[in-house]
Amino acid sequence: MMTISSISGSGNTYSSSSASDIASLEKQLTKLLKELKEVVLSDDDEETKKLKTQMLQQQIQMIQNQIVQKKNQIAAEEKAKEELQEQEKNVNKLGVNVAAKAGSIDISI
Question: Do 47 and 54 contact (CB within 8 A), yes or no?
Fold first, then answer.
């Protein structure tokens, strides 16, 4: 699965397929949880159940980790967007000589 992200400072453009990726991952997670339930209730021997259960649990953990990563990515993109908007607001208020970050000094001559 590919995530496409772009940030453009001047156009204030942010695009990401992360939200749709999360929805897709959550569908996969639901499917795996259903499979896990079926394995537990199956008539398979205990060794087969154990192996299938372990495999499904690993896949579930991977999907859960990917969901967390995608959510963190969205949060980071939102934070970057807010910071850029704040910088643009400061430039509009104060003119050219505005520090890019708090605690720094940028001077244009």
Answer: no
Q: Which of 12, 7, 4 is nearest to 77 (CA)?
A: 7
| Exposed/middle/buried for residue 90 (C-beta within 10 Å: 0-12, 13-18, 19+) | middle
Q: Tokens 């208020």 identify what position? A: 93
Contact of 63 with 29, CB cutoff 8 Å: yes
Query: What is this structure's pTM?
Result: 0.63
Encoded tokens for 28: 């996969």
pLDDT tens-digit map of 7-66: 333 333 334 577 889 999 999 999 999 999 999 999 999 999 999 999 999 999 999 999
- In contact, 84 and 98? CB cutoff 8 Å: no
What ranges do the domains of the chain cover? 45-85
The whole-angstrom distance between residue 52's C-alpha and the CA centroid of its chain comes to 29
Describe the crossing of helices 18-41 and 46-94 by its angle, rounded to 10 degrees: 160
Q: Residue 2: how many CB atoms within 10 A of its CB? A: 5
